C-alpha cells in the first residue's frame, strides 16, 4: 500500500513537472513572438521610408531598391515566423538590408561600408531577425551627410560560437546625445530575446569612445 502511494505521488509530481515545463515553454514562445512583432513594423517602416526618399528624387536606384525590399519582405513574412532559419538565410537578409541602405547615397556622400561574413556551417540554424537591430542602429547613428563616416560589420560562425561585431562612426548630432546606458526599444528587445533564447550562453557589449560606437555579440553553441 505504501509502495502504491509512493508511485502515485511520484507519477503526480512528474505530471506537474511536465505541465510546469510546458507552461514555461509556452510563456517563452509568447514573449518571443511579442518581441518579434514589435520589431517587424519598425523595420519595415524604415525600409519603406528609404524607397519613398528615392522615388521622390526620381532616382535610378528606385527599381533596384524595390527588388531588394521584395526579398526583404519575403523573408520577414515567410521566414521570420519560424523558430529557426539557416544562418545563411539570416545573413542574406542582412546583406539585402545593407544594400538597400547603400542605395540612399550618391557617390559624393556615400559612407564607407564594409561587411565580412564567414561560416563554418552555413546550414547552422539561428532565430530569425536576431541580429538586424545592431545593423539598423549603425545606419541610424553612424551615417553623416557632412563629414566622412563608416560602418564595419563582421560576422563569424565557427564550431564553437557565433560572433557579430558592428563598429560605426557617430555623427556630431548623435555624438552629443548618445548614451550607452539609455537604450532604445530595439536594444531592450534584443537583450530580452537573448536572455530567453541563450541564458548563460551569450555576451553582449556596447562601447562608445572617440566618436566611435562598437557593439559585440557572442553566442556560444
Tell me about this structure.
Helix 1 packs antiparallel against helix 6 (185-197) and helix 2 packs antiparallel against helix 3. The protein folds into two domains: 1-38; 39-220, Heat Shock Protein 90, CATH 3.30.565. 24% of the residues are buried. It is 53% helix and 21% strand. The protein starts with a helix and ends with a strand. It is elongated and about 80 Å long. It has a five-stranded mixed beta sheet with strand order 2-4-5-7-6, with helices on one face. A two-stranded antiparallel ribbon has the order 1-3. A hairpin with a 3-residue loop joins strand 4 (150-157) and strand 5. The chain has helices at residues 2-56, 62-78, 87-102, 132-141, 172-177, 185-197, and strands at residues 85-86, 112-119, 125-126, 150-157, 161-169, 202-209, 212-220. The chain has 221 residues and is an alpha+beta fold.
Amino acid at each position: 500500500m505504501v509502495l502504491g502511494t509512493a508511485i502515485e505521488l511520484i507519477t503526480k509530481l512528474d505530471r506537474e513537472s511536465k505541465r510546469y515545463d510546458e507552461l514555461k515553454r509556452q510563456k517563452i514562445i509568447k514573449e518571443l513572438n511579442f518581441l518579434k512583432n514589435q520589431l517587424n513594423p519598425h523595420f519595415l517602416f524604415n525600409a519603406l521610408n528609404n524607397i519613398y526618399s528615392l522615388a521622390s528624387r526620381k532616382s535610378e536606384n528606385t527599381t533596384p531598391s524595390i527588388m531588394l525590399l521584395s526579398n526583404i519582405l519575403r523573408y520577414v513574412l515567410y521566414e521570420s515566423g519560424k523558430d529557426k532559419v539557416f544562418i545563411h538565410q539570416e545573413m542574406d537578409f542582412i546583406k539585402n538590408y545593407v544594400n538597400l541602405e547603400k542605395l540612399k547615397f550618391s557617390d559624393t556622400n556615400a559612407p564607407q561600408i564594409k561587411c565580412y561574413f564567414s561560416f563554418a556551417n552555413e546550414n547552422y540554424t539561428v532565430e530569425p531577425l536576431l541580429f538586424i537591430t545592431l545593423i539598423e542602429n549603425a545606419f541610424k547613428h553612424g551615417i553623416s551627410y557632412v563629414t566622412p563616416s563608416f560602418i564595419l560589420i563582421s560576422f563569424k560562425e565557427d564550431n564553437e560560437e557565433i560572433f557579430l561585431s558592428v563598429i560605426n562612426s557617430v555623427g556630431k548630432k548623435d555624438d552629443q546625445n548618445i548614451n550607452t546606458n539609455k537604450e532604445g526599444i530595439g536594444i531592450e528587445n534584443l537583450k530580452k530575446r537573448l536572455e530567453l533564447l541563450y541564458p548563460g550562453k551569450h555576451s553582449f557589449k556596447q562601447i562608445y569612445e572617440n566618436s566611435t560606437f562598437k557593439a559585440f555579440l557572442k553566442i556560444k553553441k
